[in-house]
Amino acid sequence: MQIRPLTGDDRTALTGWVTHTAGSPVAVTPLCAYDIRELDGFVAADVDGITGVLTCAVERQTCEIVTIDALQPGRGIGAMLLDSVRKLAVQRGCKRLTLFTTNDNLQAQRFFERHGFRLAALYPDAMDAVRQIKPKVPATGDNGIPLRDMIRYELKLRRPEIS
Ligand SMILES: CC(C)(COP(=O)(O)OP(=O)(O)OC[C@H]1O[C@@H](n2cnc3c(N)ncnc32)[C@H](O)[C@@H]1OP(=O)(O)O)[C@@H](O)C(=O)NCCC(=O)NCCS
Asked: For atom 37 of ligand 1, which residue has the closest CA?
């Protein structure tokens, strides 16, 4: 498995996939909306092709993970993508990594908690505002859980993490 920065060709190939899985190339958080086609990021690939993608946005001293997807969960792809973005954030002088997830995404919550992220903020009913922009977002999410709220996670970065 290899991790490399996202290229222009990747963006073209991934736009259709992301639009299919997320319903739109726009990622909406309680604080802003991103067109993920314009973001930096990383791709995980093996001999058969792309196995994972992460997109991120750096603003001042914060690096936000906007999307992270492992096409084959449970193989360590998410962990490798996270390691790459953590190094990028430190190189760019960021003090924190942050991301938003939804209340139904227990798999993501477990993943980020196990990687040291802490709960930073809860945005009750944030999905109502998301549905104003992306009306196809369903009322029920993973595991049959009502899809209502957004959660912000944060990981403080320390200089010794530079390698
Ligand atoms: C969340 C997500 C990115 C995690 O990626 P992943 O590649 O499955 O993550 P990893 O494989 O590194 O870790 C997942 C689990 O597999 C285990 N694992 C890692 N490498 C492994 C290996 N080689 N063999 C067996 N298990 C392994 C880890 O211990 C981890 O266990 P945990 O969930 O109990 O912590 C992935 O589940 C995903 O794409 N979800 C859908 C999209 C999504 O929800 N994104 C987040 C939005 S905020």
From this structure: 73
